[in-house]
Amino acid sequence: MREGRLGVDVIINNISGNPYCPHGPTILFEKFQASKQSRQYFSCSACRDRKDCSFFFWADQKISSTKMQDWKNIYNEARPNLCHREIYTESDILFDLGESHLCYCKSCCRLFNKDVDSKLHKMCDIISGISEQQLKYPSTFLPPKDSSKCEAQYLFTSSSIEIILNMLKGLCASNILCVGAPRIHEAITNNQDLSMNSLMLDIDERYCTFFPPEKFVSYNMFNHHFFDTDSKNVYKKFISQENLVIVSDPPFGGRVELLHHNFLAIQTDWQKEHGINRTLPMLFIFPYFMEPQILSFMPGFTMLDYQVDYDNHPLYSSGTKGMKNGSAVRVFVNKPAELFPLPESDYNFCEPCNKWVNNTNKHCEKCKGCMSKDGRTYKHCDTCVRCVKPSWKHCQQCTQCKPQDHKCGTINPGVNSCHRCGQSGHKRKDCQNKPKVLKNKRKFTVNEKNIEHKKKKIKSLPQSAEDEQR
Ligand code: SAH
Ligand code: ZN
Ligand code: ZN
Ligand code: ZN
Ligand code: ZN
């Protein structure tokens, strides 16, 4: 982090009234800097890198109605020429061509008939011979978007799909809203035996070619924006059905407060449709080290011990190239953990905890729980009165257990504490205290950047990054 920067807060206002970028309404952020007044600005909801979406506007500058309109025009111009129905109708005609004639152009993002339109795609990157099976499971051949800051796509392995489907069965779900979970959508849509229905909400518009408007809705989960005018009705109709459950596997760099805000918006829409006041069941997929952030925004959630596996993520998956202790990704649920049985090959039911845990997660009699987070067996420290990672040592100077290579004096701040002074009980914007200067002269900060930093470390140095966390 650059010197003097204290981090960026999300300001949740009436998001749909904010200026538009090509990804729908932007988000109001507030940037805090040491020795300077904080400043608010609007920026893209979906892309955290300006290279992917360059929209930026200081909130204290006057926004004229012409400026607002200009931005709306840029949004409109970025929309595809054809609507979803037209795109799907065009490709629907090609579905029966047969494998030897059907091609997909990765450059134009469309299907075409080899015998008729090859000339049009001479300079393009194409895949020849698209089978019937592939058409049903487009995630198996669409190249995953890999920009780690915007729309990054990491796809479940077949065993993870199966276990997530089992979790849905355990909830007696019949209608599944897949928000950023194309493989779960594909699995449900193509398997009648499950007796489940699904609607996919995702920002990746390549799926318009393969699923009709009743099955796929182009949607941004960071601003609850529906890109096609009619699609909000498709969504409303879908959520009005019985036994709805949301499955969401968002990009891990996304702001949890925005995701939470928009899940609440979906829940409110659902409650209105049904005239009820209950909690909408949900499977929310995120790395274990985000647990404190997630629970601070979504207090009704529990983290399951199941390690979610990915086909194309070198470090969030198990196996030789993956993280030493298996994938770092978990399922967070807002229903009792005992409802989610896990495969007996790697997991067992812990009676006192009343939930399924990893075989490596040993119940601690002193903590009265299965305390491991990262997939390793934790050890109990009697001085700290808690379980810690096996590699940690109790440090006399810090008077607590720490990674062996830690710098004495650095504070590990709580999630609910002030980003400026480190004290709990108030947030940064209400802070009356002086910023804390630490022994090693570095200003204390924790914010989105810090979390990102940890994630980057996970990508390059999985072991030491894990040691930063408990
Ligand atoms: N593991 C899942 C895919 C998760 S990758 C599976 O196998 O089904 C994250 C998903 O979220 C991708 O499908 C991506 O297109 C989608 N996504 C990324 N940013 C989004 C946004 N702002 N709004 C909606 N969906 C988004
Ligand atoms: Zn092409
Ligand atoms: Zn313990
Ligand atoms: Zn200790
Ligand atoms: Zn403070």
Automatic annotation (TrEMBL):
One GO cellular component, as annotated: cytoplasm
Main location: cytoplasm
PROSITE patterns: DHHC (PS50216), ZF_CCHC (PS50158), ZF_CTCHY (PS51270), ZF_GRF (PS51999)
Location relative to the cell: Cytoplasm
UniProt cross-references to Pfam families, sorted A to Z: N6-adenineMlase
InterPro entries named in the record: Mlase_EEF1AKMT1/ZCCHC4 (IPR041370), ZCCHC4 (IPR039846), Znf_CCHC (IPR001878), Znf_CTCHY (IPR017921), Znf_GRF (IPR010666)
Domain CCHC-type: residue ranges: 418-433
Disordered: region residues: 442-470
GO molecular function, one term: rRNA (adenine-N6-)-methyltransferase activity
Every GRF-type domain range: 21-62
Domain CTCHY-type: from-to ranges: 345-406
Keyword terms, alphabetized: Cytoplasm, Metal-binding, Methyltransferase, S-adenosyl-L-methionine, Transferase, Zinc, Zinc-finger
Protein name as annotated: Zinc finger CCHC domain-containing protein 4
Organism: Meganyctiphanes norvegica (Northern krill)
